[in-house]
Design goal:
The protein has two helices and twelve strands. With about 160 residues, it is mainly β. Strands 1, 2, 3, 4, 5 and 6 form a six-stranded antiparallel β-sheet that branches. It is globular and about 45 Å long.
Amino acid sequence: MTLSRALAAFLTVGLLTSPALAGGKTNVTWTTPEPVHDTPSFIGDFDGDGTMDTAWLGVPAGSSGDDWQLIVSFDVANSGAVENLEHFTPSTPVEEVRITRAQPDLYTTFCGLVPGKCEPGRPASINLQTDGIFLEVLEASVVLIHWDQSAKAFARHWLSD
């Protein structure tokens, strides 16, 4: 089964099997959390190419939800690439996580709110030109994840802690 067919199967029945998405683990079937999660997925144009992409929270089938990944499927209608954002996944149970679409706008980062607590060079604000992803850990923090066009990769900025 090709990755595009696996992605189509996920969109149809809620499952995706891919060793590439499993961080090198084999035979991992990714599915949406059970019981049904408040925000398991949404669409947006994350990379600015004019096509709809999908962001979703995936858990290994049959797991408790402690091991989960934020996954972005690019240009789903045309069998686009799938990117596992495991490096943006906090060690928090999936039931304590929400993802929502960040619309293009100017966002003040944590560094803009509390500049004395940031590493040098971190931006005080992000002028989001495409859709992004708010990843919220309930009662803890909100992170803005967005496509960095110059780096051709996702970037992460803390909005609150």
